[in-house]
Amino acid sequence: MNGIRPIIDIKNVYKFFGQLQALNDVSLSINQGEKVVIIGPSGSGKSTLLRSINRLETIDSGSIIVDGKDVNGSGNDINQIRQELGMVFQSFNLFPHKTVIGNLTMAPMKLKKLSELEAKKRALALLDKVGIKDKADVYPSMLSGGQQQRVAIARALAMNPKIMLFDEPTSALDPEMIGEVLDVMVTLAREGMTMVVVTHEMGFAREVADRVIFMDHGQIVETGTPEHFFTNPEHPRTQKFLSQIL
Amino acid sequence: MNQHFSKKAVKIDIGDGAAIPVKKDRGLFNAWWLTFFGAIVAIIYLCVTQPEPYWRVLKFLPDGVLVTFQVTILSILMSLVLGLITGLGRLSRNRFINLIASTYVEVIRGIPLLVQLFYIYYALGRLELFKGLPPMAAAVVAMGICYGAYMGEVFRAGIDSIDKGQTEASRSLGFNRAQTMMYVILPQAWRTILPPVGNEFIALLKDSSLVSVLAVADLMRRGREFASESFLYFEAYTMVALVYLVITLFLSKGVSKMEQRLNYYERD
Fold first, then answer.
1. Which one, of A100, A159, A83, A95, lies nearest residue B176 by Cα?
2. What is the helix, strand, coil percentage profile of chain A, to 5?
3. Distance CA B239, CA B229 (A)
4. Is B125 exposed, middle or buried (0-12, 13-18, 19+ CB in 10 A)?
5. Does residue B168 sit at the A interface (CB-CB below 8 Å)?
6. Which of A225, B136, B171, B227 has an alpha carbon within 20 to 30 A of B234's alpha carbon?
7. Could you give the CA distance from residue A205 to residue A189 in angstroms, rounded to a whole number?
């Protein structure tokens, strides 16, 4: 391990949904600052893997260690661990009863006991960063999908997480809005954030990923740099998948 | 009080209480105005043209109206607390808690309210523990327990109607279950819950006429007292019915106003 402790360490993880084997002996280490993009056909287990990192899915066996803490360990406070893990969903999941800035300040104020003033200051800086400072006081329902997703990213960042998890962040967006969300993600990547991204955006993978992971049938089939992946994938299933989507 | 909840229904329909007027529903809107002002005009007409006995009846009733409201408000508060607990219990993953909540709902729904009132006041009143329980307290406890079961279903459906993504987003930020419920789910579920709660309030107000059998001096009881002393049954009960009607219609209007205001964050 070259003396560097991985910030996410996934070992021999199995997960079943009834009879269906969603994860089949998955192991994966991710280092601090690394950007990992997970691709694969639907039902391949990529979202399940991502969601099990912050225990939105519980695994049946194996272990997932985040920043030295076992996510499924009984002694560890999962709510504490989750504060280190920002999560962005396909369907945004903004809180509709809160304004944009309210979405950003709620968790820092309640969980980190930030003063309202401090939380708002930080929220505005984040909204500025994702380019929608002017929408701070409107409700999410007034925003376009792309804007909502950018707010969702800012909301996750407001907790100052060490790692950001993205679960198909652009899949629910109209094509013309995908770019604005990817731009924010690229900026985040350049700043050195550790990112795990499940996506179908191969352009993003090519530009940002340190490592691309191809999953199929609950298994990691192939791992490699984007160059390796998009120029000469080794595994026939990877070749088939890439030929279908590129 | 047949309630039919379909899963993920955004609006909970309850076929009880006065119909809540909706702006779009012109016919109902007119029916509301017609009934409301019809009742008021009828009261005024009767009192002006035949002050004896109608004006005398009307003057006799206000104390009862106050008691009716007192019983209704205290009962609804108790039923809201019980309803929230029951609703959460019914959604609990803990089987034991779930079973208790569900059993409570089944038992209460299977016994007529009048029987429950008699049971708590007369039957339990025989026990040493409850001896000397004032009728008012017995009435509020019985109505609160009864409506708590119905309210539990309202809360359950309201909480259940909130998208699962909201819980996931909240938990991902680091909120625990209770915080998620308090800061994310309930503030949203409230909008779905409030109209049926308003309806239950109106239904409860009407059902509260049953407490007159426990010698609680509510609106109905006052009417009965007047009637039995004067033998003017027709006049007394006509006024009682009209007063109930005016109160109920007035409240249903209030509920619809509240509902409109609660939709503020979905206006485009």
1. A83
2. 40, 25, 35
3. 16
4. middle
5. yes
6. B136
7. 11
Q: What is the pLDDT of residue A168?
A: 96
Secondary structure of residue A99 in the 3-state scheme: coil
Average pLDDT along chain B? 88
Reported as a single tens digit per residue, the pLDDT across B198-246 is 999 999 999 999 999 998 999 999 999 999 999 999 999 999 999 999 9
Place of tokens 């016919």: B27
Residues of B in contact with A96 (CB under 8 A): 188, 265-266
Residue A92 CA to residue A124 CA, distance in Å, equals 19
**Interface A:B, Cβ pairs < 8 A:** 65
The string of DSSP codes covering B4-42 is ---TT-SS--BS-SSPPP-TT-HHHHHHHHHHHHHHHHH
Give the integer Cα–Cα distance in Å for B87 and A91.
27
B178: closest chain A residue by CA = A79
- How does pLDDT run across B153-210, given as a tens digit for each residue? 999 999 999 999 999 999 999 999 999 999 999 999 988 898 899 999 999 999 999 9
Tell me the residue length of chain B.
268
- Answer whether B172 sits within 8 Å of A97, measured CB to CB: no
Q: Which of A220, A181, A223 is nearest to A203 (CA)?
A: A181
pLDDT of residue A111: 96
Give the DSSP H or E segment for A166. strand A163-167
Which residue did the predictor score with more confidence, B212 or B267?
B212
Nearest C-alpha of chain A: how many angstroms from B199?
Answer: 23
Asked whether the beta carbons of B83 and B76 are under 8 A apart, the reply is: no
Here the tokens at position A39 are: 């691709």
Which of chain B's residues have a Cβ under 8 Å away from the Cβ of A167? none
What would the pLDDT profile of B116-154 be if each residue is shown by its tens digit?
999 999 888 888 888 888 899 999 999 999 999 999 999
Q: How far is CA A246 from the centre of its chain?
A: 23
A interface toward B at CB cutoff 8 Å? Answer: 54, 56, 79-80, 82-83, 85-87, 89, 91, 93-97, 106-107, 110-111, 139, 141-142, 152, 155-156, 159
Under 8 Å between Cβ of A5 and A68: yes
Alpha-carbon gap, residue B141 to B164, rounded angstroms: 35
Instruction: Go through A72-96 and write b for each residue having 16 or more CB atoms within 10 A of its CB, e for each that does not.
Output: beeeeebeebbbbbbbbbbbbbbbb
Work out the percent of chain B whose per-residue pLDDT is above 90.
70
Got the DSSP string for A138-151? S-GGGS-HHHHHHH
Q: Token pair of A82, please?
A: 């989750």
Cα A38 from chain centroid?
10
